[in-house]
Write a structure and sequence with these properties.
This protein has 256 residues and is an alpha/beta fold. It has 9 helices and 11 strands. Strands 6-7-10-8-9-11 form a 6-stranded mixed sheet. A 5-stranded parallel sheet has the order 3-2-4-1-5, sandwiched between helices.
Length: 256
């Protein structure tokens, strides 16, 4: 394993939830760290892999809840590293996939703080696989687009090009979109996406609480998604139709 020296920060992905999807590098780093700054979506079982003397600091962000500013989190990482600690920043999924990891890395570079990134399994791939939904299938799609639904304010992102998304990608995987399902569905319909296109909402992916709701884009736009709750992924496209065949041991699909 690579060295984890004092005064260094590791940005580590904890995966989508299932402890078994944690990487060996992440587990090793947890055992070495002196202080661990962790997010809201990190499985508590992952934290139990830390060394006996490790200090834990919660810095999670959840929509609608008070949370520390991004600049404050980066300042905490820099401060701990300057005290000679081995600092681990633990994030759900992968740090560089809608996890603000790159923002924190930029802050570390600006402060002259050495760091390393330990990638994790992102929910948009591992979480969907656990639901029996392949991100790609050569008979279905040759591309996939990963989308974050909201902007820094928590509202629907105004930077998204809905026409391009509707026309250019056969499969859309949307993160952090449960509260905005109606708006997402309506925006794609208005941009020309088919009303009867298959949609799945996967909540609490890879955990014992996982649920998979199958519906259509039209019904999603109408808010017809009973039981869907955050954290969740919304996947739109024909790969959803493979779930009944490919998920025989996954939680039963719920039809909206």
């Amino acid at each position: 394993m690579p060295p984890f020296p004092a005064g260094c920060v590791w940005l580590v992905g904890a995966g989508p939830g299932d402890l078994g999807l944690l990487t060996l590098q992440a587990a090793w780093a947890l055992a070495q760290a002196d202080i661990i700054f962790f997010d809201a979506l990190v499985n508590e079982d992952v934290l139990r892999l830390a060394g006996g003397g490790a200090e834990f600091v919660f810095v999670g962000k959840r929509a609608g809840c008070p949370s520390p500013k991004q600049s404050d989190i980066t300042a905490l990482l820099v401060s701990a590293a300057r005290k000679g600690k081995r600092v681990l920043r633990l994030k759900g999924g992968d740090p560089y996939v809608f996890g603000r990891g790159a923002e924190e890395a930029q802050g570390l570079v600006a402060a002259g703080t050495p760091f390393r990134v330990a990638p994790g399994v992102t929910a948009g791939i591992g979480g969907l696989a656990a639901a029996g939904i392949p991100v790609t299938h050569r008979d279905v799609n040759q591309s996939v687009t990963f989308v974050t639904a909201h902007d820094a304010s928590g509202g629907l992102s105004q930077k998204l090009n809905w026409a391009a998304l509707a026309a250019g990608s056969p499969v859309l995987v949307i993160y952090m979109g449960v509260r905005l399902m109606r708006e997402i569905g309506a925006s794609l319909l208005a941009a020309g996406r088919a009303p009867d296109e298959s949609v799945a909402v996967v909540s609490h992916a890879t955990t014992p609480r996982q649920t998979v709701l199958r519906t259509t884009l039209e019904r999603l736009a109408a808010g017809d998604a009973p039981g869907a709750e955050a954290p969740a992924l919304i996947v739109i496209g024909r790969v959803v139709d493979l779930a009944p065949v490919l998920a025989p041991i996954a939680p039963a699909l719920v039809e909206a």
